[in-house]
Amino acid sequence: MISTASRCSICILVALSLLAPDARGVAQDDGSWREAAPPHLVPPAGPQSGIVWDSRRGRVIAHKGAQSDEHPATTWSFDGSQWRLEARGGPSAGEGSALAYDVARRRVVLFGGLSSDDAAAPLGETWEWNGKKWRQRSVPGPSPRAGAAMAYDAARGSLILHGSASGDGETWAYDSAGWRLVSTAGPAVASPAMAYDADGQRVVLFGGDVTSVTWEWNGSRWAMLSSGGPAPRTGHAMAYDAAAGRVVLSGGFNAAGKARNDVWELVGDVWSRAGKIPPRGGHGMTYDANEARLVIFGGATRRNAGERRETRVRHRGKWVNPVPRDERLPSSDTEPYLFYDAARRETVLFDSITRQTWVWNGVRWRLRAGPSGPSRRFGASIAYDPQRGRAVLFGGAEFGRGALADTWEWNGRKWNRQSSSGPIPAYSVAMAYDPRRQAVMLFGGGVTGGAVELRQFWQWKNRRWQEVMTSTIPEQRAEAALMFDARQGQLILTGGYSIPLDETPFMQTWDFDGTDWRLLSTDGPGNRAAHAMVADPVTGGLLLFGGFETQTSSYEPLNELWSWDGSIWSEIEVPDGDPVPFPDRLPAIVYDEARDEFLMFGSNERNGTWIYKRSR
To answer: Of 105, 355, 448, 553, which residue is least crowded by CB atoms under 10 Å?
Structure first.
């Protein structure tokens, strides 16, 4: 708690800063940005709604449901070698929704799935994608459900939907007139998969959690086709391989939730083994007519764990990655965490979504490790300890779950889990190394639910957490920035937010002198959070980039660059026409000592790798 005397001292400092002349410095022009590597985009990892072939546009289409307020639903296209982000928004449901392409109406259709909120309730919404945007159709139809299978029946010119996660036996048809119930006597199987067999002019259904029976739909009724072949499973994918003239089934989860790696082909009523894929379930599979090959994407190695993000295509019986090796880069549509490893003289990036660790060689990123180390999460924090030659990662939150309090260290080769006791579980804490205390310092953070922020203050030293007690302490906040100012010998804290956002204090700059906190300024870059801050070895001050404005209704991201000289903030203006990164919330920036330049990696899908270099 802050004493009354401390509160008074803060009030005096604020009043003096308001009476003093404007503390904002004159704009500078002493450096330039350049794009070092373009953005590399890949759909989010994990279970998908499925992927389908859009014959009108000649592209594979994938949809990923919303993961959180900061990660809305996205729609992607794949041209055979590269993914492209087509749109944000649309159907919020992802996991358990049914996706198929309506050839007659030239629309991608999505039905049902689980809502993206904490309740994860099944939905009964019907959405259509016309190649540019999603539109919800208000038509009566199946009851809300997840785990249904859907395929286009070309012989009868309509989409067929069957089943649910609970084993519903209804069969529905969908066309321009809407939905109609065509059968209630279908197989009562949970979470099956379907594909249209063009050779036999039939819809083929397989699976569910307790059955290995194969069924066919002839337009009016279901008939058992086979009881042999693949073992029972859910989360498998099915598609028709037009080049081979057969239905193909891949992967899925067994009863214990472990992903399978087998591939099967159906000819007539006989299944036969047809190779292997890297184990996965909950993935999508479709036929790419342009390249005459099957494509799979996404999935997981276990239910709710081990998310996969790579793309595979079937080529001469083998499943290979179609993306050229030198183009396999960290995705820009992620939350990057950067640090400079002084012991090994390299800049390191950790992608908390794919759990991959990359190293920058001055020209391109190279994969060093992964997926390994910390579990998939958002809102983690990283700081580098130069004395020990280790990077320290703390906390974050798992999607759909609670905040974390685990601590990890990177030793140049791999991540190792450390102590789990210490700070309150939190995401978006501020962290930096303080050479005076020879410790990594941690401040603030948010807790699950986004309604409570913290003002906790801890240090990581001798591989354990110790709480730091001070008489004065900044207000609670999350997504603030913390960095050591070598010129002044102070630990600097800037910005952040608290709920409600419109009551977040004006942009504050605090310093910690090793014993206590002091409010230095309430002027400069303006109200912002989720910005990046880095020490500037040339000036001995700090640079600040990006973030978002906390007291506007839109909370738009920013791309301003500011400099702190120990007493005032000055905006660094870029001449008109010069390149500059796109506005970015949650960017990462670090000083690359080996190359004497600043390296920025964006979380905005339009930003890739950027370099800022000071004029000398």
So the answer is: 553
Do 32 and 124 belong together in one domain?
no
For residue range 222-281, list pLDDT tens digits in order: 999 988 889 999 999 999 999 999 999 999 999 999 999 999 999 999 999 999 999 999
Whole domain around residue 496: which residue ranges?
A: 4-38+329-614
Residues 309 and 337 in one domain: no
Within a domain: 46: no
Digit-coded pLDDT (tens) for 201-213 = 999 999 888 889 9
Q: Looking at the domain assignment, is residue 44 inside a domain?
A: no
Q: What is the pLDDT of residue 307?
A: 80
Kind of pairing, strands 609-614 and 31-37? Answer: antiparallel
* 24 and 55 inside one domain: no
Q: What is the CATH number of the domain that holds 436?
A: 2.120.10.80
Give the neighbor-by-neighbor strand order of the sheet with 381-385: 381-385, 390-394, 407-410, 415-417
Using a 10 angstrom Cβ sphere, with 0-12 exposed, 13-18 middle and 19 or more buried, the burial of residue 132 is exposed
Q: How many CB atoms lie within 10 A of CB 81?
A: 12
Q: 177: burial class by Cβ within 10 Å (0-12, 13-18, 19+)?
A: exposed
The reported pTM is: 0.76
What stretches of 103-228 adopt beta strand conformation (E)?
Answer: 107-111, 126-129, 134-137, 149-153, 158-162, 171-175, 178-183, 193-197, 202-206, 214-217, 222-226
Residues 250 and 286 occupy one common structural domain: yes
Question: Rounded to an integer, what distance in angstroms lies between the CA atom of residue 355 and that of residue 348?
Answer: 13
Please tell me the total count of domains within the chain. Answer: 2
How far apart CA 173 and CA 609 sit, in angstroms, is 47
Q: What is the DSSP string of 388-413?
A: TTEEEEE--B-TTS-B---EEEE-SS
Candidates 385, 401, 495; CA nearest to 440 is 385
Q: What's the CA gap between 260 and 230, in Å, rounded?
A: 11
Beta bridge partners of 284: 297
Residues 111 and 29 both lie in one domain: no
Average pLDDT, the chain: 89
Of 604, 608, 483, which Cα lies nearest the Cα of 544? Answer: 483
Does residue 77 sit in the same domain as residue 98? yes
408 and 274 part of one domain: no
Q: Return the sign of the alpha-carbon dihedral for residues 244, 247, 252, 255.
A: negative
Express each pLDDT in 528-537 by its tens digit: 999 999 999 8
Element (H, E) at 9: helix 4-19
Give me 269's structure tokens.
């009523």
Where a domain ends, among 284, 310, 326? 326
- Does residue 6 register a pLDDT over 80? no
How far is Cα of residue 59 from the mean position of the Cα atoms in its chain?
23
Those residues with Cβ within 8 angstroms of residue 21's Cβ, 6 or more apart along the chain or in another chain: none
- How far apart CA 508 and CA 498 sit, in angstroms, is 13
pLDDT > 90 in the chain, percent: 69
Rg (CA), the chain: 27
- Residue 9's pLDDT band, with cuts at 50, 70 and 90, is very low
Domain assignment present for residue 506? The answer is yes
Closest CA to 444 of 523, 386, 390, 512: 512
Query: Does residue 56 fall inside a structural domain?
Result: yes
What is d(CA 239, CA 294) in angstroms, rounded to the nearest whole number? 8
11 and 92 inside one domain? no
